[in-house]
Amino acid sequence: MALIRETDFGTPRRTSEALVTLEIDGKPVAVPAGTSIMRAAVEAGIPVPKLCATDNVEAFGSCRLCLVEIEGRKGLPASCTTLAEPGLKVRTQSPKLARMRRGMMELYISDHPLDCLTCSANGNCELQDMAGVVGLREVRYGYDGANHLQPGKDNSNPYFSFEPSKCILCSRCVRACSEVQGTFALTIEGRGFGSKVSAGGTDFLSSECVSCGACVQACPTATLTEKSVTEKGQGDRTVLTTCAYCGVGCGFKAELKGNDIVRMVPHKDGKANHGHSCVKGRFAWGYATHKDRILKPMIRARITDPWREVSWEEAINHAASEFKRIQSKYGRDSIGGITSSRCTNEETFLVQKMVRAAFGNNNVDTCARVCHSPTGYGLKSTFGTSAGTQDFDSVDAADVIMIIGANPTDAHPVFASQMKRRLRKGARLIIIDPRRIDLVKTPYVKADYHLPLRPGTNVAIINAIAHVVITEGLGDETFIQERCDVAAFESWKKFIADERNSPEAVEAASGVPAVDIRAAARLYATGGNAAIYYGLGVTEHSQGSTMVMGMANLAMATGNIGKRGAGVNPLRGQNNVQGSCDMGSFPHEFSGYRHVSEDNVRESFEREWSVPLQNEPGLRIPNMLDAACEGSFKALYVQGEDIVQSDPNTQHVSRGLAAMECVVVQDLFLNETASFAHVFLPGSSFLEKDGTFTNAERRISMVRKAIPPVAGYEDWQITMLLSEALGYPMHYQHPSEIMDEIARLTPTFAGVNYAKLDQLGSIQWPCNDAAPTGTPVMHIDKFVRGKGRFMITEYVPTDERTTDRFPLILTTGRILSQYNVGAQTRRTDNNVWHDEDVLEIHPWDAENRGVRDGDLISLSSRVGETTLPARVSERMQPGVVYTTFHHAMTGANVVTTEFSDWATNCPEYKVTAVQVQPASRPSLWQQHYQETKRLTTQVLSQTGAD
Ligand code: SF4
Ligand code: SF4
Ligand code: SF4
Ligand code: FES
């Protein structure tokens, strides 16, 4: 596809249903009330010169290039700041306007470096374009007087540069930073001739800037430019695709020169991001061509042997013959597979198909096991389906936003920006989190209530909120009677109204004052549309599933479900974690969350796949590892997942893998799990494949191949090769054919196909005859399960308790610049912001232990010990410490334990009793890790592989 330059309408779209009709250059034009004349003109195909206006920020009216004439009015108003009114007659071109515009441009150009031919923006510069549009032929003013042409560049940000001599002070960057991103890092400093753009008096890197790139995108000149563009020049083609980092699922334009990515530009038509992005999606794509990429298949007999590069054929045949040997020796159920939430829906579907059809068992699981499996269980039990209820845009209609156990500005940054926009317009905010996350107080946004609960007491708090709703009569009786299972409600009502669930009763355990719980409950129940957004701080607990049901109960009790601005919404972590669950990655479910024991469902798969299938659930990841330690589980195929770093109790995971006779890892890099592998199959990045991802709002978006797979195959092709070698050939020519099969087998995907995705851009499932273009908001007239079901959610304290030996609680999370196990982001310049995990600790706890900011500390629990630097921070409450798990050497999961959600086995990452003490050297685990890592990742030089 040739390079795509989207139309810039100059000012934001308005959505009023009232239309205004006016005449522009003799052409009648009808636009929603509130639309600017500039936008009305551009929508009618009439371009208006402009510099300071762009359509994702409000008009500013400074450049005066967009002047127009309006019949019957004096003067020449700026079309960007003048609204369309009924009956106006507007002229965008006249000799007078042309003269004025040329005069403006002359002033701009007379204070601008004339290095167009060598400028990185040459060919993509609005100043250059406008000079052409207005017909500027000469500049009468010399360069002798005062000007802004002094050389100098701020190169501190690793991804973009700031060259003030090229700045035309249009303020688009400042407005993008505040209105779009909501960070307010930039200002126009000084006055008059001395005005300049400033990142708070310092350079960009040391400012509040979070490197989202919105200012770079907004800049009409080369003042703010991607360094990759400066280095490589402008791209010559565009591929539309979807970000492969988080569950927001931002749409991107990959701009390329040949097969070289020049830059990623967020797509304005991306329905999850509307042209915005964060630092990861926009800038952190360099890992795709990092030197650490493994490009040849490799095998070895023992995990202490060096890797030997082999041909694809040898690697695939070796893996297949090992799987077959092991099954014939230890039985059909002795092997299994893990699908990846980083890979596409089609790839995930194929892995579970291969396990069920070629391995002949149901031993397939996914990394959602360790993040959002309680979401599946909890929402299915109450509402009838395992997914968030709303689209992101629904937040624009929310009056109260309740965030529980999530940190959107770090983990879901683009949705956080959208949320902040709504909050700046007046929505109220309740945050339930042990930590003082950024949203508690950020520019122009302040939480009405922050309930800093003790980790592990979520259920006590949600029950107490519901208790207030019920006992104070704040529920929505009509909704309950019409939409819910009334008998289930009555027994829940009795349970929840019991005194043991009152705010006063849970105050001591939760650490949250009862008065705050009551106030938050009243606000949620009576403040208008109330929407809950939650994250892993809800699910990764021993009562994760209970908590999900508790939130669903609360939403039903107040009628906050089935309409815009309300709902219960998991903020999914990885790009395709929703999709990997949808695609049947769990051992007990086929695609579309249908149990393997349902005969009619299983038979439909048997018919399509021409093979008998097991009717009993297979093993979950923790069961596979336990069985491996016990000696009955012997081989594993892991696609795009690093369970050694991401799963709890690293030592146990390592023991399980080390006990297996064949571990096959398919990945981009020799990750931690590959240290235990016997076969390594080089995978492909999202830039190298076709397929789809499904984001947190159930939105299925296209991933399109921008460059050929650098190791030769897309991941779905590798699974096909392996399946064929196992004796179960698959015959897909393209992932679209896999999607067609998914649609045939999965009622919620029945209407999904690539042609429709191309046409609509993206589709939110369910998509079928009843909803041919998808479903933005679910449960509108009735719940998927019919009547909404209230579930009893008894609070049961976790077995993980603090003791004299381990008196603190560790909770874990993510930060903005790194992603999950860090395999991708650690191989980018994002390390500038976070090159090691640190332990956040409250000043009191630090002082008690003689720990100062930056000191190396030992973090120990009853299962393990690691060391990392301390960061003394009042974000934490006393008694609670926090770290991330982005760096393998830190091994945060060395200390997390085997406790897990009662229903789904999702690990209890968020509650580990620990001790913190000063340390002087790495822990024994870390020393061992360093030694074995070297040993287990040696690669012999090439030995004639293809
Ligand atoms: S990169 Fe984003 S946060 Fe940083 S200054 Fe630009 S708009 Fe603001
Ligand atoms: S840096 Fe770019 S966007 Fe910002 S004021 Fe200067 S020219 Fe405008
Ligand atoms: S918010 Fe998520 S999906 Fe969007 S660019 Fe950032 S990482 Fe990618
Ligand atoms: S574009 Fe209207 S004043 Fe600049």
In short:
The chain is α/β, with parallel strands linked by helices and 946 residues long.
> Mean pLDDT score, rounded?
92
Q: Terminal Cα separation, in Å?
A: 31 Å
**Proportion of strand residues:** 15-25%
Helix amount: 25-40%
The total count of helices amounts to 29
Oligomer: single chain
Rg (C-alpha, Å): 29 Å
Quick tags:
946 residues, alpha/beta, seven-stranded mixed β-sheet, six-stranded mixed β-sheet, 29 helices, 29% helix, disordered C terminus, binds iron/sulfur cluster, binds FE2/S2 (inorganic) cluster
If you had to describe this structure to a student in words, what would you say it looks like?
This protein is α/β, with parallel strands linked by helices. Helix content is 29%, strand content 16%. The chain is built from 29 helices and 36 strands. Strands 13-12-27-26-25-14-15 form a seven-stranded mixed sheet, with helices on one face. A hairpin with a 6-residue loop joins strand 6 (187-189) and strand 7. The two termini are 31 Å apart. Mean pLDDT is 92; it is low at 942-946.
List the helices and strands and how they pair.
Blueprint: E1 19-24, E2 27-32, H1 37-43, E3 69-70, E4 89-91, H2 95-109, H3 126-133, E5 160-162, H4 172-181, E6 187-189, E7 196-198, H5 214-218, E8 224-226, H6 227-232, E9 237-242, E10 251-257, E11 260-266, H7 279-283, E12 298-299, E13 308-309, H8 312-330, E14 335-339, H9 345-359, E15 364-366, H10 373-382, E16 400-404, H11 408-411, H12 413-424, E17 428-432, E18 441-442, E19 445-446, E20 449-451, H13 458-471, H14 477-483, H15 486-497, H16 503-510, H17 514-526, E21 530-534, H18 536-539, H19 544-557, E22 568-570, H20 577-582, E23 589-590, E24 594-595, H21 599-609, H22 621-630, E25 635-639, H23 643-646, H24 650-658, E26 662-667, E27 679-682, E28 691-694, E29 699-703, H25 715-725, H26 735-745, H27 754-760, E30 762-764, E31 808-813, E32 839-841, H28 843-848, E33 856-860, E34 865-872, E35 880-884, E36 912-918, H29 924-936
Parallel strand pairs: 1-4, 14-15, 14-25, 16-17, 16-21, 17-20, 21-22, 25-26, 26-27, 31-35, 32-34
Antiparallel strand pairs: 1-2, 3-4, 5-8, 6-7, 9-10, 10-11, 12-13, 12-27, 18-19, 23-24, 28-29, 29-30, 31-36, 33-34, 33-36
